[in-house]
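Section 5: illustrative case.
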């Protein structure tokens, strides 16, 4: 609920949306995801099974909460969040093979804890990774680009220290994509 809606006395209801890129028929993880979301929100989620446009969803319905599944072994799932005005605010374990990332508009997001997911574009150097696999941040996922850079996802507690180390090594910071 935003402060503006508090002032107006309007209660803005969060709209749960489940993105499910796989076939839903006979998928026990899909059924479990819907049940977990319903138990957490009191509302059965709407389902999107094809192209997910987070930017459009967050612009049209800022109160939306998107539940994005990350399956064991998947990489690069977080790239869709960059530039969408959306952040990860929590995660829910569905099974050993699947967890749901809970995504909200960065304007409505409240942190659940101290860890953050931090995305950056970097030029790979061994010294950089030695510094980053420390108390400041730990590499969580990486994607190589055609330009010779790496889009990397880190988990850390202090966004400012993370940015300072990135900038001191001549790298580009893309922005914080979540906190939980």
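Designed sequence:
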């Amino acid at each position: 609920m935003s402060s503006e809606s508090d002032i107006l006395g309007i209660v803005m209801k969060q709209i749960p949306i489940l993105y499910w890129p796989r076939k839903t028929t006979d998928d026990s993880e899909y059924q479990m995801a819907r049940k977990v979301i319903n138990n957490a929100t009191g509302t059965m989620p709407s389902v999107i099974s094809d192209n997910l446009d987070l930017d459009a969803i967050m612009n049209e319905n800022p109160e939306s909460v998107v539940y994005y599944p990350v399956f064991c072994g998947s990489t690069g799932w977080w790239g869709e969040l960059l530039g969408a005005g959306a952040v990860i605010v929590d995660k829910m374990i569905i099974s050993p093979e699947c967890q749901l990332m809970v995504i909200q508009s960065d304007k409505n997001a409240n942190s659940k804890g101290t860890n953050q997911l931090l995305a950056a574009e970097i030029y790979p150097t061994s010294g950089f990774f030695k510094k980053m696999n420390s108390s400041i941040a730990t590499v969580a996922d990486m994607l190589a680009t055609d330009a010779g850079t790496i889009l990397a996802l880190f988990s850390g507690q202090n966004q400012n220290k993370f940015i300072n180390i990135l900038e001191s090594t001549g790298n580009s910071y893309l922005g914080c994509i979540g906190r939980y």
